[in-house]
Design brief:
alpha/beta, Urease, subunit C, domain 1, TIM Barrel, 8-stranded mixed beta sheet
Length: 417
């Protein structure tokens, strides 16, 4: 984009700004700011102002902005943010799906050598370039469905070389894709076969050999750990998290997917987010709600595993900051459609449209510790979606079938179907 280029883009039937909404707690649709016949001023990659066309026109003329006319009914929203994915991997877990349909549980399949360890085997066999290319394809699909920022975890390498391979693939893919990819080291995804029965030894090896190298190469600033029966217990996880924090890593935790209490550890360690929470009880809900840790729910995993949805309604009513993410992965959540999952969890948990949109925009940004995306407001990045409708409610009503036909990333129109 040319230096100091100013664009005046108009008219939009509606602009859903997400301004003036709280980071925590329940939201009502009446709190949403919806600008009718709206317009937006963008300078380079940043929003200058958003208002009605009639109010913003004089300023656009004064700034000698380039006029960009939208010639059909469109609703403008902020770009979507998917704060939890595993889209860097190799191989398929269709076999796991078949076994689950036959009655086996996720944990049973994992204990038999399926699940994560099967993906580890296939990912170790793949080259860095193969991982990069498959990641780019998935990221591009996500972008075309409106996701402009996406977290991507490692965690299918489970040794120093293959974890580094994954993180390098994510970094290189990020240099090519339009979407912003935020890498997270999830080397503590489960215990690899080489360390069975020696969880502490494995985490010590990660702490001493992997994490310092990640810092040296600047491959990620985030670590995650899966606290569960088939992975790591609370005591083991706490020691690992403490070491990672001393190195300067931000923290997120796979918590309460099948058993409660790990979210309490996440809050104690001041993690940015506690993710999953299907098994969270009233005790965990209260503790999360009284903290700054984001409750990130993953409805795609519930759909894939046939388990109960996380207690989103209770979390919001208790005062939590709730984000919604896809958990897109080869095993439990292969769908990866954020709008579809958001609509479905809203239906089952009776969330308002305001709560759902907050969960996939600015509240998801908080889970990634990014403070200038997720709203259409002054000084926010111009990551924007235009949907072919004149009513913002149609987007989630369509359960993922209504897709954006125009996508701006950093103020540049990169997709126009």
């Amino acid at each position: 984009m040319l230096k100091n280029m100013i664009q005046f883009i108009f008219p939009f039937s509606q602009i859903l700004t997400m301004r003036h909404l709280s980071l925590k707690g329940a939201l009502q649709d009446s709190q949403l700011e919806v600008i009718e016949n709206g317009a937006i001023l963008i300078e380079n990659d940043t929003i200058i102002e958003v208002d009605s066309f009639i109010n913003l026109l004089p300023k656009a003329q004064q700034l000698k902005a380039t006029f960009v006319v939208i010639d059909e009914k469109m609703v403008l929203t902020a770009g979507l943010i998917d704060a939890h994915t595993h889209i860097c991997y190799a191989g398929s877990r269709a076999g796991d799906f078949s076994k689950r349909l036959g009655g086996k549980t996720y944990l049973e399949i994992a204990r038999e050598g399926g699940g994560i360890l099967y993906s580890v085997e296939k990912t170790r066999q793949a080259s860095e370039n193969e991982l990069k290319e498959s990641l780019i394809k998935r990221a591009n699909r996500h972008f075309e469905e409106g996701v402009t920022t996406c977290e991507v975890k490692s965690g299918y390498g489970l040794n120093v070389n293959d974890e580094l391979k994954m993180l390098r693939a994510i970094q290189k893919a990020n240099q090519i894709t339009a979407i912003d990819l935020i890498s997270t080291c999830l080397a503590a995804h489960t215990i690899p076969k080489e360390f069975l029965g020696r969880a502490n030894d494995y985490l010590t090896m990660l702490s001493q050999e992997l994490l310092p190298q990640i810092k040296k190469e600047k491959l990620s600033n985030r670590i995650d750990i899966f606290v569960e029966d088939t992975a790591f217990n609370v005591v083991e996880a706490k020691k690992y998290i403490q070491f990672a924090k001393e190195l300067g890593f931000e923290i997120t935790v796979h918590a309460d997917q099948f058993h409660p209490e790990a979210s309490i550890l996440a809050v104690e360690m001041k993690a940015l987010s506690a993710d999953h929470l299907e098994a969270s009880t009233e005790k965990e809900i209260k503790i999360i709600a009284n903290s700054d840790t984001v409750a990130t729910i993953l409805p795609g995993a519930c759909l894939g595993l046939g388990i109960q949805m996380p207690p989103a309604r209770q979390l919001l009513d208790a005062g939590a900051c709730l984000a919604i993410a896809t958990d897109w992965n080869p095993g439990s959540a292969p769908m990866g459609n954020l709008l579809t999952q958001t609509s479905i969890v809203g239906t089952y948990q009776k969330l308002s449209i305001a709560e759902l949109w907050a969960g996939i925009t600015f509240r998801a940004a908080k889970a990634l510790n990014i403070n200038n995306i997720g709203k259409i407001d002054k000084n926010y990045k111009a990551d924007l979606l235009a949907f072919p409708t004149d009513d913002y409610r149609e987007i989630l009503y369509a359960q993922g079938k209504l897709k954006p036909t125009m996508i701006w990333k950093n103020g540049t129109l990169l997709y126009n179907s």
